[in-house]
Amino acid sequence: MPSHKKVNRPGLTTVYTAFGQLEAHVIKTKLESAGIPALLDYESAGVVLGLTVDGLGEVRVMIPEALAQEAEELLSQPPDWPPEEEPN
Fold it and tell me: What is the pTM of this model?
């Protein structure tokens, strides 16, 4: 079971917790493409060992607290891929 430990980074808040680097980078890119700066916080042992067990693969996507509501709204929207085809 993941640890979900609370990480304190002054001025930042966690808006998403991923279980692996790939998922975390997708979320980070989505936020950054909307103009929201983001950083990834994780234990290096999970990356080195390639584990996603007991919180080792847990990656927290963190953003400035002031942008949390905007980010949560963005992340609550369904993915826009594949793009919808335009009617003829």
Answer: 0.72
